[in-house]
Amino acid sequence: MAAWTIRPEPVTDTAVDPVMRQYFTEMGRRVLGRPATEAELRTVLAKDPHRDLGPPDGEFLVARSGGGEFLGCAGVRLLGGSPKTAELKRMYVHPAGRGAGLGRSLLFAVEEAARRLGAVRIVCETNSQLTEARALYVRYGYEETAPYEGHGKADHWYAKVLG
Alpha-carbon distance 112 to 126, whole Å? Predict the structure, then answer.
């Protein structure tokens, strides 16, 4: 039995803002190789809002321990075009949730949410420094693909047909 639950939570809830700060702080440390400054965090939160990771064309999933502690999150949103494609965004596993299969569980939950939204394909982007994420995607059927939608600092893009 899993030591967590994964459920949709409103991405507009004020409790999500600290989660996004944790996510971007970790990404800054890993991708930039240094802690992000407060100004950089404010800028990235303003330039790359997460509001579209909610209904009607998205979903934000949060993993919590039995006691309600935040362990991880992942979002999904529909992109335009055909075939109907969803994008995995903001996948993050808090250090307290690492090493127990939570990343896999979040990935599967996002894929299921994408199917509920009507997607037949899912894409995501990541960086070379995020070796665990890249290995996870490949392990579960994602294949490297060409860049899509001109995203910022990513240097690896993946796609998977949803069965």
Answer: 20
How large is the angle between the packed helices 131-139 and 102-116, nearest 10 degrees? 60
Does residue 129 contact residue 111 with C-beta atoms inside 8 Å?
no
CB 28 within 8 A of CB 40: yes
DSSP 94-149: -GGGTTTTHHHHHHHHHHHHHHHTT-SEEEEEE-TT-HHHHHHHHHTT-EE----T
Token pair, residue 27, equals 């990404």
Of the pLDDT bands very low, low, confident and very high (cuts 50, 70, 90), residue 65 is very high
CATH architecture of 4-161: 3-Layer(aba) Sandwich (3.40)
pLDDT tens per residue across span 91-111: 999 888 888 899 999 999 999
Q: How many CB atoms lie within 10 A of CB 150?
A: 6
For the full predicted model, state whether its pTM sits above 0.85.
yes
CA distance 163 to 161: 6
